[in-house]
Queue: 2 jobs
Job 1
Amino acid sequence: MKIGVFGGTFDPVHRGHTALARAAQEKFQLARLHFVPAHIPPHKQKRPITPFLHRYAMICLATAAEKSWLPSLLEAPGNAPESRPSYTVETLRRLRFTLKKADELFFLMGIDAFLDIAKWHESTALFAECAFIVASRPGHSLADVAAALPEKLRPAQKVTAPFQRQRATGDLILPGVRVHLLDSVNNNASATAARQAAAAGRPLGKLLDPAVADYIRKHNLYRPG
Ligand code: ATP
């Protein structure tokens, strides 16, 4: 079975996330897709992050209509380390315990996040745990994607140079690397834009599922002071 994992801060979950989830599920026939909000301990935060419970509740609302989309507690406080952010490689290993040997994991992300993947904890080992489904954007080439790989998995520059002008689309399959690029996710929503719109009392319908927008209003999230 093919199983998707979508990790993020999801502060809040928005239409860009669900567009990527839908496109990935359609193209790769994922039987299940776990939405995994990260627990980020307060002292590790660059900006104040909304408490885990609110972010999880909003994911429950945004995924309610899709039977195969599962809000996940894998990185909930209590399940994940309390003293540092949870690492994706550890989360996937925990998930693996619950799966069959033949099950395949696909980790979903946007290309902006993927370009930093080499800095992730045990990044080389992470590629052994899962394949990646990455939402591409115009302006990035296949060579950029290859250059972002952890050093041990990265092909020599002379190999990737010819792909410098080739749009980041299709598959990048190398020893120990499976990256599938999706160029069909054309939704520019971001959590930053959603937080700013909520703070300013602007309409949220373009960025968020209506139930998530209602939740934000009811709980007065993202409002200044
Ligand atoms: P922020 O604006 O606060 O930086 P964000 O909108 O990027 O947040 P995250 O929860 O940090 O949301 O993102 C989780 C994952 O979803 C990341 O891999 C990110 O690249 C991806 N992502 C976010 N927005 C989009 C989008 N509009 N289309 C495709 N992928 C997206």
Job 2
Amino acid sequence: MTTLIKGGLLLSATGESLAEVLLDGERIVAVLEPGSDLAGAAERGADRVIDASAKYVLPGGVDCHTHLEMPMGDLMTADTFESGTRAAAWGGTTTVIDFATQMAGEHVRESLDARLAEADGQCAIDYAFHMVLGGVNDQSLGEMDKLVDEGITSFKLFMAYPGRLLSDDRQILLAMQQAAGNGAMIMMHAENGIAIDLLAEQAIARGETDPVNHGYVRRAELEAEATHRAIQLARVGAAPLYIVHLSSSHALEQVAWAQNNGANVFAETCPQYLYLNLEDHLGAPGFGGAAYVCSTPLRSKHEHHHADLWQGLRLNQLSVVSTDHCPFCMNEGKDLGVGDFRNIPNGLGGIEHRMDLLYQGVVAGEITLARWVELCSTTPARMFGLYPRKGAIVPGADADVVIYDPAASSTISAETHHMDLDHSAYEGFELQGGVSTVISRGSVVVDNGTWSGTAGHGGYLRRGLSSYLR
Ligand code: URP
Ligand code: ZN
Ligand code: ZN
């Protein structure tokens, strides 16, 4: 089956051009000049022609930080692999990289195999996994090398959550040394969890139990301290480092400093840190702020975090925007933390709205169209060893294509979103632009408000090493 997409403005990480895109089966086979003999021949021979006039044509989004069907205590994140990947596709994301987690005492291989089995046959779009090392030891270090050979080429460590996932400096350095040898990327949740837990304990003892206190105790200084420590350990260990969900000016300053000093350090931020804040959202009246409890936390609107993060995106101090989609419903989820913010499950849902929310940055003049594509698709694919199969419209790449209508508009609401979540962190946000068609490996899955995808269409992706290794 061949498909020609014509009439649109083709966007890439380097610019834009009027071009036609020819798909054959699951692959992109040609990018053609409109009006050329080749384009004419392609149209005559195509089984299907999609008219993208007055629209953008861009590579499908790559969300490299999601938590679908993830257990947390007795709970599970609200989106399954099926519902989460469907919602992602509705928003123009055609690849997700989720996590398999080895908890302390567990065997890496068994944790990964169990996760692969859970996702198998469930996903509507292609997917891959990073491996969380919750227990760095001789065995898990040895497993790292084998996993890299099998296409799991990034490993996430935690400096937060003592007693659950935290790795100490010795474990972090060991994992980094191992990564230096096998080419893996180390991803870091950079917050000083030991200091945070003390501050949280003290807040509860003072009777400060509301959700907003989650933001007060997870201080930006403690994100910056952990970010700095992770950077210095990565320099000593000679491993590449990727800071996840960076939320504050303070931590950004550390990343910029590292980059200016030649360290192979990268960072992502997420839409919540660009649009939401501590006072209005985490500090919503009553228990409403619980919807906004995530770690790292939302930051104060009285500081300069939003503006600094947008600037970091322009300057490439921040090179990726992911969602950290980690949805918990208010009912039978977030409400576990009534009376003690420490018990509110951490995480925000947003897998569906990443491309749209970042596009608002284009509308507002914060970033260019090319940067939008680079942040949401091309760089995450390059960062995590999926490029050029993903993240680019070039011959040979997977036919993951989004047709985006800049003239569309909508309002985000839990009433209409496709995530399996009883609220939206972005309720009432007005969006300019919107997805009209989404093609996943050659199959149209979304077209003008109609879903035609299927669970199981999405395949598991073995990844190569990061394009950003030195
Ligand atoms: O609050 C968050 N981000 N929960 C998900 C787990 C993590 O730290 O990424
Ligand atoms: Zn994290
Ligand atoms: Zn996360």
